[in-house]
Amino acid sequence: YALNFTNTPYCTTWIPLPDVAATRKKLGVPACRKHADGTDFFTLPILYDPTTTSSTQQEGTFVADSFDIAIHLHNKHSSPDGGRPPLFPPNSLALHRTFNAHVDALFSSNGAQLAGYYMPLDPATAEVSKADFARRAGVSRWEDLEIPQGSEERKKKLAEFEAALGSGLAAWFVRRDEGPFLEGRTPMYADLIVGGWLQMMRNCLPEWEELRGWHGGLWGRLHDALEKWAKVS
């Protein structure tokens, strides 16, 4: 979303999941997260910007973690007069950082456990990825992560997810009569944060159509409004 929102030209290089750690190490980009056991958690995306200079004065800059990438794009590649809108309203960076952590925790503790098992994996590396996910979750088999569709356990967790989104996020959209975004008509990076998680739900959660309709259809409207910035180049 953020690259398209700021009209920044780019191209995407896809990395197989089992190669993410090795790729970051090769590029000299340290991990920015930790597993529960304290070991490094190497994630994507990574942005390489050849138009800027790094802190070591090397040509080009690597930026990792979606939020830091958004800050970089806002600072280096937004130009309202040139048709490249800013991602963050004035004096909102700290609020956005807090919001990002809140949304990440909300979806990670609710939606991810319902959707993760149904993630579309590359068949060439699926077994390696499944084994890694199972290890990180502390279970012996990939199949242990499934919460069967239609089961009472799944129905309960879906209800808990809906309630968490209602009390923890939907209530923040107070200008719904003006538009689908947090501020009504005008999108900002906070909307893209939620949109990124909705993209995961669309691609992984079997009950996606049900989720779209929760809270008066709020999530479906937000997802659809962000589609103009969703195409990956």
How does the SSE layout of this entry go?
Elements (H helix, E strand, L loop, with lengths): L1 H4 L14 H8 L5 E2 L5 E2 L4 E8 L5 E6 L1 H12 L15 H17 L1 H5 L10 H12 L14 H17 L20 H16 L3 H19 L7
Helix pairs in contact: 4-7, 4-8, 8-9
Key structural traits:
233 residues; 47% helix; single chain; mainly alpha
Model description:
It is a single chain. This protein is globular. The model has no long low-confidence stretch (mean pLDDT 93). Strands 1-2 form a two-stranded antiparallel ribbon. A two-stranded antiparallel sheet has the order 3-4. The longest helix has 19 residues, at 208-226. α4 (93-109) packs antiparallel against α7 (152-168), α4 packs parallel to α8 (189-204) and α8 packs antiparallel against α9 (208-226). The termini are close together. The protein has helices at residues 2-5, 20-27, 66-77, 93-109, 111-115, 126-137, 152-168, 189-204, 208-226, and strands spanning 33-34, 40-41, 46-53, 59-64. β3 and β4 (59-64) form a beta hairpin. The relative contact order is 0.13. The protein is mostly helical and 233 residues long. It contains nine helices and four strands; from the N terminus they run ααββββααααααα. It is 47% helix and 8% strand.
Percentage of residues assigned to helices: 40-55%
**Unreliable stretches, pLDDT < 50, 5 or more residues?**
none
Structural class: mainly alpha
Return the string of H and E elements: HHEEEEHHHHHHH
What number is the mean pLDDT? 93
Strands, total number: 4
Q: Tell me, briefly, the overall form.
A: globular
Helix tally equals 9
Estimated share of beta-strand residues = 5-15%
How large, in whole angstroms, is the Cα Rg?
19 Å
Q: Mind describing the biggest β-sheet? A: 2 strands, antiparallel
Distance between the ends:
11 Å
Strand order of the largest sheet: 1-2
